[in-house]
Amino acid sequence: MSNIKDIVNIESFRGRFDVKEFVETISNQHVIDAKVISTQFDPKPFIRTFEATVDELLKLKRKVQRKIDDLDDQAAATESSTRQKMQEITSTFENCRLGFESLETQINHVGATAVKIGEQLETIDLQRTKAVEAKDLIQYFLDFNQGISARLETLRKKNAAGEYNAVIIARRLSGIAKEVDVPEIEKARTNIEKYCEELEKGLLESFDKALNAKDRVKMKQYAKTLFDFNGGNSCLQTYINQNLYFINSSIIDCQHEFESLYNDAEFDTGIPKPDHQLIQYFDEIRKIVRIEWDMIFSVFVNSPQVLIVFVQRIFAQSVQTMIENLLLQAEKHSPITYLQVLASTHKATQNLILDLHHFDEEVIAFQVGAPVLTQILDRSFEDLFVPYLDGDKYINLEAKLFLTIYEQVLNPYQNFMLKRSKLLAKKGIKTKAFLGNLNASGSVLSNDVAIPSGFSSMSQVLSKLMGEKEELNASDDSTNIKFAAIDNVLKLIKPHIQAVNRCRQLVLPGNLPQRISFLFQLLLECLPQYLETSITICQEDFPLQDSKIDPDLKALVLVQSVTDILNLIQFHFQSAIVSKLLRSPATHREVVVYKNNLMSDVEEKLGNLVFTQIEYISVWFVSVLSKQKKNEFKPNDDQLNIGTLPTPPCIQITNFVKNMYKTAMQSLNGENLRVFLLEVGNSLHSLLLDHFKKYTINSSGGILLSKDLLSYQEAIGQFNLKELAEKFELLRELGNLFIVKPENIKQVLNEGILSRIELNLIYPYLICRSDWDKLKYFEREIFNMNKNKNHNGSGNNLSQYNSDDSLAMSDYSD
Which residue ranges does the record annotate as region Disordered (predicted)? Predict the structure, then answer.
């Protein structure tokens, strides 16, 4: 039992309590005994032990409960005592707070009184100070009135602070002397002004010595003193005048060489690089502004104003002088050099301004709070170029230069046109091709005038026909003139692109579309007239051609040249002009309409020229066919052999057609090529149909005719046109009518293309057979065949092979 009491106590339940372990502890001995005595399990010992344990646990519970009750009573008593003490403490703290508030109110009252007393004392002290200063000023003033400045001079020489005070006093005395207008103080006014001048001079000398010694501390001291004395303008001017940048500026007056950069014979379409001396000079400006700002910021109280004056001085004096000297030398060199130098200088100066803007915004604004050079840089840049760009001065120079180049390029043609006009006049021929004139304002007089043009070797043709070759001066090199040449157009377009690029650089964006429109219309005034006059000369030269030789196909060459030039103008418009006109839709629309109208006029004249070429080719065909001998297709049998060639007219025409085809392939393309070849083929076909009806043809002549027709068919066959292929196949089949025996004529008429032709149209060819008079019995049968054809609706007219196609020139879009 004592063992149970030892186990069941308050300590057993402290900490972690395990019921199973507790039960094993109180029943451990009974388990051991049961293992030793090997009998049947006896629960009674366990029951007695557990009952005793429960009794002990109940006793322990009652004991613990009594202890808890005692502790609750003690806690309640302690809590009541604590609550009472807290109330007492709270009351005490409240009393303290009220006491402190009362004390603070009293202190504030005392403080306000003290402030009032302090203000009164400060006012009194200020009045006293002013009185003392006024007394001193009066005394100093009276001293100056007596010509005495020793006391103020002693103060100035005492130390730096004394010098500053002396400066302030001198400034005040100067103000008093200016405001007080009493005759008795005239001497004082004079002495004060003299003293102030000497004082300022001394300060400036001291500042200058510090500047030369690079002593920023003393520079700042004297700069501030002078700033408080008279605003610091004299100090600012001294600093700028003594700056080595303005002293060592010999590069401004240097001589410039332009040959390597601006060669008149080599037009570069872009803006050239600026003069290397100008680049070097501007780089020095960038460097000096950065260096000087560091000095100015550390020395001057009013550093932004000082920098503004410094930069203004750079542009107004140095940069302006440099640009004036550069442009003056460029103007003496040549007009193109002047404009190129103007544009490149403008661009270089613009880059300099942008760099200084960046420095202002990134460095200066960070140090002083805001940019300070914005207005002065923009105004200085504008002022530099106003003398050169104001009003229409610049654009008139561009127009004058372009027209000068225009005259230089076309001068050989002008000389040629004058000689040509004289030669034609002697023959009583009036030409419609005249030279364009330039008026005083620099614009081209259009409407009834044109620019000289023509074709290669034209002068040779004229001189040969008119017998006056000696009148063409060999020194003019007129025999080598090439009209409507793309090289000449490039000589005008290249400087025009150059002018457009300069205009883009020099003209304000708001005025750019109008200026670009003016320059482009100036080009359009020149080139279309140049092309139209080339076409006119070609038209006028057709009647002058010798019919004994093959037709000159210069018109086809001209079509290709003019087409290439129109394409070049269109490309130039798209690549260099359009982007500059987009700011002004109205201007863009006007330029497009103007351009398209001029090009349409040129294209219309080209179409007329090509048809004129076709007409003169047809005339030449007639001339050659007229040389056909009367009995050429009625030879004796012994005159014909297997190796006999086609007739001379056929050889001449087919050789020409082959050469013409090569030229046409090189000069024309697309629908224009097809229509030209078709028209020439139709013309030759019609002429041959009429031509062979005029001759009597025997069987041997039929063989010769077949060779001719085969040659014509082969020559036209290279055109690769189905319409012409059928027509010349018809001619070849007509030729077969003269070869076959009489009994085979019907068979020939019922085969091939002839089977589709009305027999009354074939009849004129049948009667050309030399044996037709002996074949009268065939005539009735043939006409019966014709009736059957007409009845069956199978007969066609030869006229169905005529073509109504027309030339369609190119169209240029906007």
Answer: 793-814
Report the alpha-carbon distance of residue 690 to residue 681 in Å, rounded. Answer: 14
| Cα 479 from chain centre | 43
* 3-class state of residue 697 by DSSP: strand
- Measure the N-to-C terminal CA separation of the chain; round to a whole number of Å: 125
Q: How many CB atoms lie under 10 A from the CB of residue 94?
A: 10
Angle, CA 288 vertex, CA 285 and CA 289 arms, to 5°: 85
List Cα–Cα distances, 491 to 413, 485, 734, in angstroms: 14, 10, 56
**Inter-residue contact 521 to 423 (CB < 8 Å):** no
| pTM passes above 0.85 | no
679's tokens: 């028209």
pLDDT of 430: 57
CA 449 to the chain's CA centroid:
36
Question: Residue 757: helix, strand or coil by DSSP?
Answer: strand
Select the more confidently predicted residue: 132 or 233.
Answer: 233
At 549, give phi and psi (nearest 5°). Answer: -110, 165
Q: What is the pLDDT of residue 489?
A: 86
What is the distance between the alpha carbons of residues 737 and 778, in angstroms, rounded to a whole number?
13
- Comparing 177 with 211, the larger pLDDT belongs to 211
Q: Are 313 and 246 in contact (CB under 8 A)?
A: yes
Taking only the tens place, the pLDDT of each residue in 127-179 is 777 676 666 666 666 667 666 666 767 776 777 776 777 777 777 777 777 77
Whether the pLDDT of residue 593 is over 90: the answer is: yes
Contacts of 811 (CB under 8 A, 6+ apart): 603
- Taking CA atoms, 508 is separated from 56, 559, 588, in Å, by 115, 41, 17
Q: How far apart are CA 4 and CA 277, in angstroms?
A: 119
- Bridge partners of 697, per DSSP, are 769
Residues shown for the chain: 814
**Dihedral of the alpha carbons of 464, 408, 667, 458, in degrees to the nearest 10:** 0
Rg value, the chain, Cα? 59
Residue 793 pLDDT > 50, yes or no?
A: no
Residues with Cβ < 8 Å from 645, sequence gap 6 or more? 651, 707
Mean pLDDT of the chain: 78
